[in-house]
Specification:
Layout: E1 3-7, H1 8-11, H2 30-44, H3 52-56, E2 62-65, E3 68-71, H4 81-85, H5 117-121, E4 127-130, E5 140-144, E6 147-150
Parallel strand pairs: 1-6
Antiparallel strand pairs: 1-4, 2-3, 5-6
Length: 157
């Protein structure tokens, strides 16, 4: 079954995302913005044992889930405590609006022959809709059941 695939190296080169979304409730395309943030947290987080970013949040908006950082947007008050507490500077400041819709991966609106609109409208070729599996030797990581990311990930030695 095909999955959404983001190549972070290509995606980070765009200054402004031109991707369109077919989901009615994403008029400003915040679905792809949420996916990009989720991918960055999954890949760039250094996975500290102490988790100072999680501990510093006064609203419990951050949590480690299966060793990956997850932000609860409706809890976040954009105080940036996590950003300050992160010893590596990898936590992104709150860039998304308070009310946010998550990407639904076009489930029920596309099939294996028709890619989602975000894939066909991506001008830099960073988004693909393909069969993919996690392969750490190729720097391909599974973020969730519907999203895979290609990025060079930081590894603890």
């Amino acid at each position: 079954m095909k999955k959404l695939f983001i190549d972070q190296e290509k995606c980070d080169k765009c200054e402004k995302c031109a991707v369109s979304c077919s989901y009615f409730y994403h008029p400003d395309n915040i679905g792809i913005t949420a996916l990009r943030e989720m991918a960055k947290y999954a890949i760039f987080c250094r996975k500290c044992e102490l988790g100072t970013c999680v501990q510093s949040c006064p609203q419990e908006a951050l949590e480690k889930v299966d060793g990956r950082l997850k932000r609860y947007n409706l809890r976040c008050i954009s105080c940036k405590s996590c950003n300050i507490a992160c010893p590596f500077g990898t936590i992104l400041p709150e860039l998304l609006p308070f009310m946010i819709d998550q990407c639904d991966y076009c489930q029920g609106r596309c099939n294996d022959t028709t890619p989602p609109l975000c894939v066909s409208s991506c001008t830099c070729g960073a988004l693909e809709f393909k069969e993919v599996e996690e392969d750490k030797t190729k720097h391909i990581y599974k973020v969730n059941e519907n999203l895979y990311v290609h990025s060079v990930q930081w590894e603890r030695i």
